[in-house]
Design brief:
It is a single chain. With about 270 residues, this protein is an alpha+beta fold. The chain contains seven helices and twelve strands. The protein has three domains: about 70 residues, Ribosomal Protein L30, Chain: A; about 110 residues, Roll (PH-domain like), CATH 2.30.29; about 35 residues, no CATH class.
Length: about 270
Amino acid sequence: MFVVGIARLAGPLQDEAPLLAADLGMTAYDARLLLAPGLPAIVLLTPEKNRALELLAKVRDRGHDALAFDTQAVIPSESMVRPRQLTLHDEGLTSGDPNPEHLRFVDIFLLLRTTHETSSEASHHTTKKEFSASRAVLTGGLVVRKKTTETSTTHAYGKLDVLYLYPRAGQRPWLLQETGTRYLGLGDRLAATERANFLTAIELIRVHASGAAYDDRLVGRKIPERLSQFTIQTLGVSDTRVASSTASAMDLLCHFVAMWHSKQAG
């Protein structure tokens, strides 16, 4: 699959939306929905390389800052280094997993903070017995109750703050999560809550990895439903722990942002 994204617009969104809609073969309203959550934004996901390059050329001809890439280059968050225990020391980070991995601060070129949103749906079935006048009449009073089953559905939504760490070259990206990680090396700054330790770890990493860019524009970013569902269907990836997750679509967006930062630095 090939992706086209827009990092910056040369003019107002309302001017670009109808032009982008014509390029994509959709309504201006739908095109506006792709851009409305903010930039950078993914506007096309297609199996046709020529179509992606054609759109890229059109968007750039209108003066916008855009990039395209092959999804085969994207490392999904579930395949990144995701330490359950993280040690911060003077030189870098070490994961405390069975096979420890190391990441030097000087090798980090981008710290990208964002949010993964999850939603789940669960059905509950309750069976109970109730008095049935019709059964009492038909059976002469031998059977006076009937079984009924009621189904109720509950919905749960959640947000998880995460930090993508992109090395300069040759290593897998790292993903730090707000929950589920033990942070060592915080010393007297170790707090009682996971979120506090997560935020402290980010602060310390930013201080030590002073040469790395820091980008938090994607915190709380809404992923368009069209893109989220299309990503799951076409790439065949989703978080198996929940019914729906924006993680796979966010991975594409984060890869795009990392490419953009690399381009700016180069």
